[in-house]
Amino acid sequence: MKSISSELADRAWRRAERLLGFIGEGEFRALMRLAAAANGAAAAPGHVVEIGSFKGKSTVGLATLAGELGWPAVVSIDPHTSPSVTDPGVPSFKAFSANLRAAGVEGQVEVQRATAQAVARSWQRPIRFLWIDGDHTWEGARSDFELFSPHLVPGGIVAFHDTLHFFEGPIRVFAECVLPDDKFGPAGFLHTIAWAQYRPADGERWRGERAKLARKARRVLPLVAPGRENRGLNRLRYKLALARIPHRVAAGIHLD
């Protein structure tokens, strides 16, 4: 695994920390580590693709990383037309563009101001790191995964934001679509982010480990299903289920 230097991570965070967004410093640094882990020879020369950008906080970090490592421009996919089911804010494109310029990474981002479905119709490029942070419903997250994961290169990584926050989509896609699939090898949680490495040639080697993780992740699913609320007894059960899932950043990322 390629590691990211603390200096580069610090520089990326300094550029992004004051931006409005839904990713804290711990999650941000976890994202940087995961993206850097897709820097092996097997993952080149794919793109970093971000689905869901809001005002560009994670985009700035990924673009900083891509620029330092000599990768192609980060592909940012977002129609910027909130509100939506899981994004009750306001249209964000003006702030997104201004934030990229202020951070000095505008030239390192390819902006696709469109839905993932629209971009996928003509997408043919390889992907080294797929960051799914768009529609957090089951249907939306599953669609984003199914549309773009076939373009992952061997050694590439798919990662989902907010899998350990109170949303059904990301955790359910990870538990039901990723972990049972032998095209993926090593997998885990880092902070609130779920990740898996695309290993179509030998992913079955990690089948047992993924199955154990899936059993723990599936305990969360009925607690975040539509109609359930993050309060009272359900909130307590939800916290207990999360506590059984290993997701400490200190645990690291273990790839062959």
Quaternary assembly: single chain
Strand segment count:
7
Q: How many domains?
A: 1
Helix content: 25-40%
Q: Provide the structure class.
A: alpha/beta
What CATH calls the topology is Rossmann fold
Can you summarize the main beta sheet? 7 strands, mixed
| The named CATH superfamily | Vaccinia Virus protein VP39
Please report which band the strand proportion falls in: under 5%, 5-15%, 15-25%, 25-35%, 35-45% or over 45%. Answer: 15-25%
Order of helical and strand elements: HHEHEHEHEHEHEEHH
Give the CA-CA distance, first to last residue.
Answer: 7 Å
Q: Taking Cα atoms only, what radius of gyration do you get, to the nearest Å?
A: 17 Å
* CATH hierarchy class name: Alpha Beta
Number of helices in the DSSP assignment: 9
Average of the residue pLDDT scores: 91
Unreliable sequence segments: none
Corresponding CATH architecture = 3-Layer(aba) Sandwich
Tell the overall outline.
globular
Strand order of the largest sheet: 3-2-1-4-5-7-6
Describe the structure in your own words.
This protein is an alpha/beta fold. It has a single domain (6-251), classed as Vaccinia Virus protein VP39 (Rossmann fold, 3-Layer(aba) Sandwich), CATH 3.40.50.150. It has 9 helices and 7 strands; from the N terminus they run ααβαβαβαβαβαββαα. It has a 7-stranded mixed β-sheet with strand order 3-2-1-4-5-7-6, sandwiched between helices. Helix 4 links the parallel strand 2 (74-77) and strand 3. Helix 1 (6-16) runs antiparallel to helix 3 (57-69) and helix 2 runs parallel beside helix 3. The chain is globular, with a radius of gyration of 17 Å. The mean pLDDT is 91.
